[in-house]
């Protein structure tokens, strides 16, 4: 089978087909400042805005979670805090339809040598609940992995006392809850990732570490866990699941007393390893962003790797923007220690893409602060095909309603994607007029794909 990781490895298009270079990332800027240590930033879509979450030290025994809606320039707001309790590693879980503005913030609560998973429900008007318990069986509930897709038909996984448990969102009489968890694996678990309908985790024993995986079928039945990779020692995963079509898993491992980075892809039974030409004596502190766009033949579109390296006595951020390239550009010149670089998607860039954010921690003036750099993650090669005879789409631009005119009453299957490849509307109809209600969608660029048998048409749609 053709190696899908060699087919358009790195297509960035900004105002056409011009490739991005390493200088497309902005100079480092502080996301937060102040006399307190901050860590584990998370940037996610919430309420048609983007919510920045982070944990912030209150004292030696207490850590709070703060947030701010960064597009409106609002001030940081305290989400949850309690003396003697560490609230850690916040993440966002969306659900429902694209017009649903409710979401959850999930996090760890560590108190009295016990770790439990909590969540807070946010409403569309910005109000939210007090912390609610998600998992508290035994003394250890952590390593939470959430699906990146807006629709939470994908699994939610976590470690509970050495057992890998999976669950998902379900609806009971219109009330959102979690299904009873299933136990998928038992052992020493150090990291978990959700990639589409595939679950990965790292399992350790006394003399080796194993990269493990299991996948679901369409009836939500899990395969038997299988070993993908074995090493003397493995680090945590370097990539995050930003959307469901992100299929590349990055991981680090130790071999011959040196640390390496490898990438693994599994899709419908096809697997592929792509080791990178990076070797260090110490474990990597790194992040990876990769994604596919559903409108471009399923090829890998974006791949970024950022890692921390020594230079002139400082720990700076270096970045690579091509999958097979060994050319890394120094991104930060802060002259200090940096750590924990992670990529996230941000607001619409309006030229067929989103802003991509790299967020990390830098030790400045005696405290760990959050810094970021951003670049446009865009494309311009959707391959807009000639319209199917008798089928017309109007208006374009649109303000809330898109009509597909189907004069020949063909059986049309149609899908509306946002710029990340996420399906917002999908259906089949042979009506003469098919109306797509987009009033609840954000302004920006979308892609409408229409199929009739072997014919297919794709075009950009602008919502104003």
What characteristic shape results from the CA principal axes?
Answer: globular
Q: How many beta-strand elements?
A: 38
Biggest sheet: strands, sense, closure?
Answer: 5 strands, antiparallel
Structural class: mainly beta
CATH superfamily of the largest domain: YVTN repeat-like/Quinoprotein amine dehydrogenase
Please outline the helices and strands.
Elements: E1 29-30, E2 38-46, E3 49-59, E4 62-69, E5 77-80, E6 86-94, E7 103-111, E8 114-122, E9 132-135, E10 141-145, E11 156-160, E12 163-167, E13 169-172, E14 175-178, E15 182-186, E16 188-195, E17 198-204, E18 209-215, E19 226-231, E20 233-234, E21 248-255, E22 258-267, E23 270-273, E24 279-280, E25 286-292, E26 300-311, E27 314-320, E28 329-330, E29 338-348, E30 353-364, E31 367-378, E32 391-394, E33 401-406, E34 412-417, E35 423-429, E36 433-437, E37 444-452, E38 455-463
Describe it.
The protein is mostly beta strands and 464 residues long. It has 2 domains: 4-378, Methylamine Dehydrogenase, Chain H, CATH 2.130.10; 391-463, Immunoglobulin-like (Sandwich). Helix content is 0%, strand content 55%. The strands form 10 sheets. Strands 20, 21, 22, 23 and 24 form a 5-stranded antiparallel sheet that branches. A 4-stranded antiparallel sheet has the order 1-31-30-29, with no helix packed on it. A hairpin with a 2-residue loop joins β3 and β4 (62-69).
